[in-house]
Amino acid sequence: MRTSIRTFVGAALALVALSACKKDFLEQDPSQLFTADQLKKASQWNDGINEGYINGILSTFFKNGQSSSRHDDFAQKAFDISSDLMSGDMELQGGLGYGWFQEAARLLSYKRDGALNYAVWRISYRTISMANSFFRSSTGDTTPPEVTTEPNLKAKRMKDIFDWGQVKTLRALAYLNLVHFYGKPYASDTKSLTVVPIYAATDDASKPQKLATIEEIYNQIVKDLTEGIAAMDVSGMQRADRQYIDQTVAKGALARAYMDLGKWSEAYAVANDVITNQAANYPLIPASELTTNGFNNYKTPEFIWAIDITEDITGSLRSFWGHMDIYTYSYAAVGARKGINKYLQDQIPEYDLRKNWFHPKSGIPWNKFFSATGKPIGTMADRTWLSDIVFMRMAEIYLIASEAAARNGDDASAKTILLKLLKERTAADKYSDVETAITALSHDELLEKIFYNWRVEMWGEGLALTVIKRFKYDNKRSARSLFFKEEAIKWDDSRLVYEIPQNETTNNPLIK
């Protein structure tokens, strides 16, 4: 995919044209993109058009500058930093002179005129717009291309079916971002609340849509993912590498959605299927490499979906690494640091190897996120900004399966699965003690232990806010935080839900 991404960026950038904006804040069919008819005609004489377009959709998850020229505008990983800061598990420690991510740390990014708010809406609907354009050029978004036995067409048709499944998954991931940021957690008393519009391929792209309910959004997400998985299964194809979408990525996203919905049996079934069939392909980062991996290489075996950052697509200062890695020449290295909540850090026992991810005094992730070429501290040696980014890894799947089993009353399975993770996160001479302790946990103690592992294992990876809300945890900021020192923020604080952006309410008369 290294070559295909370079080809996309160099030769097909006009296809994506992520910088300009029409009057309508929600761009259903931006003038800078291929129209569905153009895409359909072009694909008839160039088999690479569909792949280039899918690369374009993929790029909406990592391309910087899609909504502004700000240095906290780099798509999904910027969303991840924002939500982790909002959760309180990540704390902003300095860099007030720069201002990046202050909105999130101060719980102001929810505001309808906020830049971080704008980015989630604009980029997510950009993904949806491009996906719908793809579907309009194909067979629509309800039925995949038909299987054929025609020898001259079979290979291309199977690729078309696989591509259709990839795009269904990417659209679902965009809606998942939207409902996480703009919706309250799904529950019997919230599911009927309106949240964001749904746009289907059959909709008139020039006309705005009304707000859908939280339940309708999740129905769309689950439908896209299940249909995407089925299509990719039927195709019998495999992705070129882990930068593309496949069934495992789609199943991971589906498990996330089921967890949001409280559908524990379904979440467990999907996550356990991934573990059973894919654990060997995506083995956990072993204990011996936990503090030397750096999370900087997309080929890390545990990574299910990750992007190879090259010179063509690096965001340089404007990147996840620029804001998180103290060894990379950028904001974290000169003071705008983000560290783990001290109260959470203090919970990590000495035998938990993840304790060494974080600096003992400041809590910065000096041994979790670091450039392969940047050490030692103070040198800011990495000035190439080529460290890769990860969107999904196997540890999350273990945690989903463990929590879902426990919430469904199957504590034995929950403990067994959790211990598979902890085997690679515990000092070898202490694992027997940990195993004994986990086995003896009561149901409530087990859920508390799973909650702890979510927060430590996935720290800095954009999952903390949804986990905090699911466990209904009021998170207390520590004295190291620039804002809300020693203050507990309630899990259902209104500032943890984004308002619909001002530009959208202005341009969409169906939103009041």
From TrEMBL:
Residues 115-234 form the SusD-like N-terminal domain. Residues 349-506 form the RagB/SusD domain. One of its GO terms (cellular component) is cell outer membrane. It is found in: Cell outer membrane. Residues 1-22 form the signal peptide. Belongs to the SusD family. This is SusD family protein.
